[in-house]
Amino acid sequence: MSISTRVATEADLPVLIDLLDAYRVFYKQSTDKGAARLFLEARFRERDSEIFLGEVDGTPVGFVQLYPSFSTVSLRPVFILNDLYVMHSARGLGVGAALLKKTQDFCTSRGYKGLALETAVDNPAQKLYERLGWKKDMGCFHYFWSAP
């Protein structure tokens, strides 16, 4: 078994649509491959995110998506790791770890300060994050305002 990661391109749109739709369903959203297509096409067109695929023996089974942001305090750019998903059938094989390592290497190669992510309090992937050097921020609260 061979695990690899690579930059996703527009040619990967069909598989990315399926993976993004499965990711959204995992988070209790309704399946909507048409909306997933439009969303991903916009990301490629606007070039406002970085998407990597995780593969097992050349077959895409997961993805990670990064969005650029900035830290005003440190005067450096950061990436927000907004999405990480591995198909259920490929979990436990190391694909998630490979994707996270890819994002860390990508961040370092670009000279960014680091990566930020948010996850559900019951997400078992927390153990993986911590094993790979991620630190839980216990010093601040996360707030979100929803537009009416």
From TrEMBL:
Ranges where the N-acetyltransferase domain occurs: 3-148
Q: What's the short name of a Pfam family annotated to this entry?
A: Acetyltransf_1
UniProt keyword terms in alphabetical order: Acyltransferase, Transferase
- Name-wise, this protein is N-acetyltransferase
| Organism from which the protein derives | Muriicola marianensis
Write the lineage as a comma-separated list.
Answer: Bacteria, Pseudomonadati, Bacteroidota, Flavobacteriia, Flavobacteriales
